[in-house]
Structures are given as C-alpha cells and as structure tokens.
DNA sequence: TGAGTTTATCTTCTATAGTGTGTAAATGCT
DNA sequence: AGCATTTACACACTATAGAAGATAAACTCA
C-alpha cells in the first residue's frame, strides 16, 4: 500500500471532478502548483494536517483522500457492496462536466 | 478540526483496546515510546506513511486513525468552545476491558 | 505554426517530522 | 517504605515536508 500514490490519485480524481486546474486548486488551498503536481504524482508524503487542508479546499472529508480506490486496495480481500471504481486516472482528465476554465483569465 | 488530536485519540483508544502499552506498541511499530507519547497527546503531525505504519502495527485500517470520533468529529455547528475533555483520556488508561498487560517479556 | 493554458521538473531554503538518549512524574505492587 | 512499570517531557540531531522561484514539457485551439 503506497500511501503517497493513494493520496495522489484521490486528490487528482477529486480535483478533476470539481473541474479545477492545479493552479486554481493551488490558489484556493494555499499550496503551490508545483507541490500539488508532486503530490498528485505520489512524490510527496503529506502530513495529516496537510491532508485536512487539501480536503477542505476540495470540499470533501479528509477521509476521502486516504480511502482505498481500487488501484491498490489490498487489505480488504472481501468487499460487500463497496464502490467499484476502475476508471483510469486519465479518463477523468477529459472534463469534470461542471466548471471548466477555472476562474481567472 | 484538530487533526493532531484526532489521530492521537484514535491511536490511544485503539492501542488500549488491543491491551498494548506504549512501549509494547513502540516495539511492534518501530516508533519510539517517546514519539508515541507525543503523538497520542496531539503534539505530533504524522505523515500519511506514518499513519499507515501505525495502523498496520495496530492491526486496523489507516482510515480508522483519521476517522472522526465524536470529540470533534462532525462539523458541529453548535458551539465548539469547550475541549475540556482532558481527563477522559486518562479514564481509558485504566483498562481497555479485554487484554491487560500486553504480553510483555 | 504559434500563442495560451496546464502540468512536470529543477534548485534553494526554512520548518518540522521522527530518532536517540535521558529522566521525571505517576501509578501499581509487596 | 521500596521497586517496577508506564507515561510525560526535554534536548540535540538528521531527514524531509512544504514554500518560493523559474522553466521545460505538453496539450489546446486560433
């Protein structure tokens, strides 16, 4: 279980679902775009406080950022009615459907 | 939402439920007893990797360590002025009910 | 083809996570 | 009383989280 990559995937997925660019997310979260890039690629090991601030900026619970996502959800061999998410990260990159072109111009 | 304290409470509660001392938990987790003491008292800001290692050593999911526990869990719109729950932690130290004396030496 | 937008990568820097050692404060046991 | 166990607290130290800046790579669309 690679926590860095798990958090990275969750952050990227949720960010894209919200239709935010890394830059727009950076502005509203206070983290730099560079840091978010590293984070989403699993190169960073955020603290629980950082986790909470990221989740708050994304409008989700901090728990959502550490929840297994199917890519490497090992510890639970049996799942009963859980969520099945097998879509690729890239697939989400298309467009979240909502706001594109995050503010600013 | 004080993530440091939330994680601290969860770790302490689960550790005591398992009937482990900080020292016994330190041995099986690889963290020092001093660090665990700080952690449980909300003085530390662990990374997600640390969170996972702690959870693994406790035999629970890493999600359990960040799950709201009622103390400051829900986004209680009601007044959140009082966190005078100081002695409550000690109350747990009495005995977790199950295994006592963590299979030492 | 080139400009604009978005993300990845590099370097330098400060703050702090986590280690190691020691010890004090409690609590418990006989 | 004493001794053992458990937890709290201090200090110095190394590794890294996260900030700040600039820029390269990549994709989008005129």
TrEMBL record, chains A, B:
Residues 11-65 form the HTH cro/C1-type domain. Pfam families: HTH_3 (PF01381). Transmembrane segments: none annotated. Residues 83-92 have a biased composition (Basic and acidic residues). PROSITE patterns: HTH_CROC1 (PS50943). Keywords: DNA-binding. CDD domains: HTH_XRE. InterPro entries: Cro/C1-type_HTH (IPR001387), Lambda_DNA-bd_dom_sf (IPR010982), TransReg_Diox_bact_type (IPR050807). Residues 73-105 are annotated as: Disordered. This is Helix-turn-helix transcriptional regulator. It comes from Falsiroseomonas oleicola. The lineage of its organism: Bacteria, Pseudomonadati, Pseudomonadota, Alphaproteobacteria, Acetobacterales.
């Amino acid at each position: 279980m690679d926590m860095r990559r798990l958090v990275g995937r969750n952050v990227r997925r949720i960010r894209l679902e919200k239709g935010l660019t890394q830059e727009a997310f950076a502005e509203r979260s206070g983290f730099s775009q560079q840091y978010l890039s590293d984070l989403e690629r699993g190169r960073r090991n955020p603290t629980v406080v950082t986790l909470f601030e990221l989740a708050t900026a994304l409008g989700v619970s901090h728990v959502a950022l550490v929840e297994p996502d199917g890519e490497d959800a090992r510890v639970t061999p049996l799942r009963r009615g859980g969520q099945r998410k097998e879509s690729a990260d890239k697939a989400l990159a298309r467009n979240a459907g909502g706001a594109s072109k995050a503010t600013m111009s």
